[in-house]
Design goal:
The structure holds 2 protein chains of 2 kinds. By secondary structure, chain A is mostly helical. Chain A has 4 helices and no strands. The chains are: A mainly alpha, B mainly alpha.
Chain lengths: 111, 165
Amino acid sequence: MSFMDILAHVFTGLGALVLFASGLGVFRMPDVFNKMHAGTKATTLGSVLFLIGLGLFEPSWMPKLLLIVLFIILTNPVSSHALARAAYNEPSEKPDNLLIDDLEESKGGAQ
Amino acid sequence: MSRTPAVISTSIVLLGIWFSLTLSTDIQEITLGVVVSLIVAIATHGALTGNLFTLLNPRKGLAAINYVFYFLGQMVKANIDVFLRIFRPVIPIKPGIVKARLTIKSERAKAIVANSITLTPGTITIDIIGDEIFVHWVFLPSGDVHAETQAMVDSFAGRLEKIFE
C-alpha cells in the first residue's frame, strides 16, 4: 500500500467519523438551534475530509472534487441561516431555553 | 469602462471551473469555455466575484491568505469542539442569542462574516438586520457576553476589512 493510499484512508476515515458525530449530534441535542450547530459545522468538515480522501484515491478526480468542496463550504452555512431564521420566526419551533435573546428585543422595538 | 476588471476576473474564475470540469486541452472545448464564461460574466459579474484584481495588491493578497488560514483553523477547532461536546453523557449547553455590531459596510463582506461565524466554534448566525448581527452561542462565554461576542465578530470583520476596505 502506497503512502497516498494510507493518507486517503486516513482522510476518508476521519471524514466518516466527523459525519457520524454530526448525525449523533442532531439526534442528541435538545433544541433546533443546538441541533444546527452539529448539523452545520460537522457536516461541512466531514464532507470536505471525505471528498479530499476520495481525491487521494483517484488523483484525476481531484479538480472536480475540489469544486464540490468549495461549493459545500460556500452553501452549507447559507442553508443553515435560512433554517435558523425560519425556526426563530416560527413560534412552535422556537426553544424556550435561551438565557439571553437580543433578537427578541430588537424585533419588539421595531414593531 | 469601470466594469471591465470585474467582468474579466469573474470570467477567469468561471473559466477555472470550466477547466476543472472538462480537464481537456481540446481547442473546441477551450474556445467554447472562453465564450460562454465571458457571456455569463457580463451578465453576473456584480453578483459573483466582483473585481478580484485588487487582490494583486500584495498587502490585500496577504490579508486574503491570512483570512483563509485563520478560517480553516477555526473550522477544525469548531469540529473538535462539537465532537467533544456530543460524546459527553450530559451535553453541556448554555444557549443564548447575542447582538453584535458589524463595522464593515460591504454586503459581500457581511455575508462572508456571517458564513464564517456559522462554521467556527460554538456560534451560528441567526440573522443580520442592518449592521447588527445576531449570534447564537451553544455555550455562552463567561464574563461580559456582549464584549466577548463583539470580539469574536471583530476577529473576522477586522481581517476582512484589510481586504475590502
